[in-house]
Every structure is written in structure tokens, then in C-alpha cells.
Amino acid sequence: MKTLGYAAKHSFSNLAPYEFERDPCAENEVEIVVQFCGVCHSDIHQVKKEWNNTIYPCVPGHEIVGVVRKVGTSVTRHAVGDLVGVGCMIDSCRKCEPCKLKEENYCEGPNGALATYNGPMVPAKQAPGEINTYGRDNTFGGYSETVVVPEDFVLKIPANLRPEVAAPILCAGVTTYSPLKHWGVKAGDRVGVLGCGGLGHMAAKLAKAMGAHVTVFTATDNKLDVASSLGVEIVREDDKEALKLMKSSFDFILSTIPESHDINPFIQLLKRDSVIVVCGALEPMKPVDNQALAFHRKQVAASLIGSIADTQEVLDFCAEHGIGPDIELIPIQDINVAIKKIIDSKVRFRYVIDMATLAREKS
Q: In the beta sheet, which residues pair with residue 191?
């Protein structure tokens, strides 16, 4: 099936129109016409080969909302016309312990989970061009007309969530919801969020809806005025006096900063037996002062996206609490400008592509 999308062909090239073949629906799959797709910082890391695992051509996009156009013969969960979503994964080995526990994001199969784009999450286990256990060496994401996905990796979008707002919840939402849930954040807890971008502002909204007292730490001056809109406390990361007053006062801290950074100043803010979780960066981090951890039995941990169950749960949670990411809709033709603005921290807070604009490339 011929499909039009936007792809990068090299780490130094812009995204541009690209036509490719989608496999037809298998008996357990659904074909989705993409309506909206969020622009995630991971898209930028992959397009620019900053994680050194990009397979080109690279068609990004793993915050996908669209309408089911076709279903396979054995599909029971979704029907033609349903509004659905696709997040960071489209399959897993289904046999390992994490998969059996419905934690597909931690799949320990030979190739890990199958990412929505850029192929398996651990392609280093195969030679370039080698066909892996999924029968393919690349996948193409939601910056495209259609996607074809196994039915159990497709999410239901609640009726009271605007589809364009739902899109970033499929990555930014679940990536922050999953650690908040796993480490048991509850009403009355004091929660810190490092970073106030696409993930950070979503983490703040989720933690606040859980009843926590939330403080956002940012290094960007133009984010300081968002406190009134988020309804949370906001502090400059480099305000040493403010940090000193917060020493040993936080139950949980979540770092959403999307590149390597120093978490040592924030370890000091944790209570005894509390944890700081990194969910934004996949690069090696700055060294940690273990003495600061050991003397108060503090912990440093990490979290990777979220399971399919977590993703459905956070969609339903956002619908129930009337929350969602702050978005700006853009045409696909503006994607390269949008990427530059994200790199320069000039977006509040999540770009979402109106995929109907892709039709302009055919006119």
C-alpha cells in the first residue's frame, strides 16, 4: 500500500516528503488513517542520530491519533470508524517475563519491543540490514497518512478528549504517568519536576491531579510565568537560596530534561528513603555523589515510556480529570521550523501536526 509521509534520509538532512510501502492489514491488525501526530523530542534525537541507532530513511512519529479504516479478520477490540491512538510501541516478543506481566516497554525478547518507528528498540543486536525477529529492519511512524498496527497495541481515545490533545498523552503523558504510578505518588506528597517542556508540564499536571503539591524547576526564563497556568510552584534551577530552603523536603522528584544533566543539586532536596527518577534522558548522566545518597538511603532510578495498559490508563485519567497537554497545531510543512524551535526551547509545550495538511503534497 503506497503511503506518503515525511522522512529524514540522513542525520544532516531536513524532513521532506517521502513515499513508501505499508504492509496490508494482517488478520490481527488495524489500518488507521492518521489525523494528528505529536512532535516528541525523541523524534529529534532519532532524526539527528543522537542516540547512534537511527535507521534511514526515518519517518518519525509515535504520538498518533486517527480513525480506523480497515480491520483484519480476527480483530475484536476495534471497529471501522473508531477513534484510536498508537504510542511508542507496535509489538513485542509477547513471551518474556515483562511481556507476560503486561510491561511490554521492558520487553526482553531478542530485539526488545518493536518501536513505532526506527525498528526494534535494541537494533544493535542485529547487523545493519539484517531481518530481525519481527521480519523487518525498519518501521515508519505517524508523520504519514496511515499506520498498520496489531489490535492489542492500539489504544481507545476517550470521547471527551480532543483528538489533537490526546496525541501527546501517548508518549509525554504515559512517560511521566508511569513513574508517578510505579513509585506510588499520592495526595499530599511533595513532588518536584525537573524541566518544563513537553514532558515536564504534563508531569506537573498529572501529579497535581493526583493531589500532590508540585514544584517545577526550570533553567529557562520564559517558562517562569507558566506557574499561573499550571497552578504549581515554579523555581529557577540555579536559585541556590531557594534550593537550600527546600533541602530534604521532597517525597519524589521526576527529571524530564531530554539530555544529560546534573541531578546532584536535586538529590539534596529528597527526604530520606525518597527517589529521583530520570525519564527524559537516555544519554550517560553526570556522575552522582553516592555519599549524598548513602547517608539518607536515597535512590536514583530511571523509567522508560510506559506499558500499553499504562497508556490506556493515563488517557482515561486525563479524560476523567479534564487535563491534557498544552498544544500548538502546525501543518506538516512547518515541521523543520518546529524542530528548530524545540531545540531552542521556544515552544509551549507540545507541537502537534495536523496530518490533513499532508494532502497538500499531492496537489
A: 214, 252
Judge if 332 and 267 occupy the same domain.
no
Q: Per the confidence metrics, is the pTM higher than 0.85? A: yes
Residues 280 and 346 in one domain: no
The answer to whether residue 143 is domain-embedded is: yes
Question: How many domains, in total, are found in the chain?
Answer: 2
Is residue 349 within 8 Å of residue 218, measured between CB atoms?
no
180 neighbors 49 (Cβ within 8 angstroms): no
* 182, 203 contact by CB (below 8 A): no
pLDDT tens for the chain, residues 1 to 363: 899 999 999 999 999 999 999 999 999 999 999 999 999 999 999 999 999 889 999 999 999 999 999 999 999 999 999 999 999 999 999 999 999 999 999 999 988 999 999 988 765 455 555 667 787 779 999 999 999 999 999 999 999 999 999 999 999 999 999 999 999 999 999 999 999 989 999 999 999 999 999 999 998 777 777 766 788 999 999 999 999 999 999 999 999 999 999 999 999 999 999 999 999 898 899 999 999 999 999 999 999 999 999 999 999 999 999 999 999 999 999 999 999 999 988 887 899 999 999 999 986
Residue 212, domain extent: 172-302
User: CATH code at 74?
Assistant: 3.90.180.10
Q: What is the CATH number of the domain that holds 267?
A: 3.40.50.720
| Residue 56, in any domain of the structure | yes
d(CA 60, CA 8): 9
